[in-house]
Amino acid sequence: MSTPPACTVVVPTYNRTDLLRLTLDSLCRQRLPTGERFEVVVSDDGSTDGTEELVTGYRDRLDVRYFFQEDEGYRVARARNAGIAHARAAVCVFVDSGVILRSGALAAHLTAHRETSVPTAVVGYVLCFNEGNEDGEEILEALDLADPDASFAAFTAQHRWPDIREDYYERYGEDLDALTAPWLMWWTCNASAGTALLREVGGFDEAYRSWGAEDVDLGYRLRTAGARFVLRRDATALHVPHPKSYEDNMRSAAHNYRYFAAKYDTPVAHLVPDNHFHEIEDILRSRGLADGKVTDRFGSEFRPIDRTGA
To answer: How many structural domains compose the chain?
Structure first.
């Protein structure tokens, strides 16, 4: 029997062949240690734009599988769950269509998981993420699609279009595991977690049927299950600009944040709908809740699963 892949890259998509092509091209450039390989699962949420044909064209360069679900509206949570279900590796790396990975990004994700025996959730670094595509034209003009690694180096050196979570890291530090709610920063445009733990906590909640919060919800459950959260700046990606509506996304997210708060009904969950993510850690500290614990609606502590053997 052949050695299983080191990681499974899960890429959900919907009618975005041009953006998906950029992501798959970046996966073709990944460098893993000698003898290791990775697989790709493209999970299609009902595309009609030739996505399957595009993916098929990469099978000579990537270990890639394609799974399709009928278009019944926005079902990215279900699409990602299909990727988790079909994963053959011990680690799942989540990447969105139109996200270009630096050539060493997958290796950096894997290093983070191998540094400890404790289940780990990795927050990758994402350049050029615009909430409303406000810098889209400028970014596209500066981006070298023939040599993305050169763009990664240039943008980083010039401090151009850093990760929009940079303010959070400057405010609280980069030791995410020391924080009470690091799951607020676990975004599936570039993130990873152990496949077994993802399955154990139930994967993505498929009740999320519009943009926003399904990744934060899963991150919350990963944390309560005992996952260690780690920021890896070298697991770098670049979010290619594309048209989007900031106003529409915020309306959708607001609805989903309310669902999240009602679903868990904990003090920290109730902070999510009405506060900027970058402010919540300070609020927790001011209220004496910044102790790393998450409680249920009755005030009982959720005790993380002990995986140390102690």
So the answer is: 1
Gap between the Cα atoms of 146 and 92, Å rounded:
27
Place 245 in a pLDDT band, splitting at 50, 70 and 90: confident
- What's the CA gap between 180 and 182, in Å, rounded? 6
pLDDT of 183-222, one tens digit each?
999 999 999 999 999 999 999 999 999 999 999 999 999 9
In a domain, 298, yes or no: no
State the average pLDDT over residues 111-124: 97
Angle subtended by helix axes 214-224 and 76-86, to nearest 10:
50
Phi, psi of 194 (to 5 degrees): -70, 135
1 pLDDT band, cuts 50/70/90, is: low
Q: 91 lies in a domain?
A: yes
**Residue numbers of the domain that contains 101:** 7-246
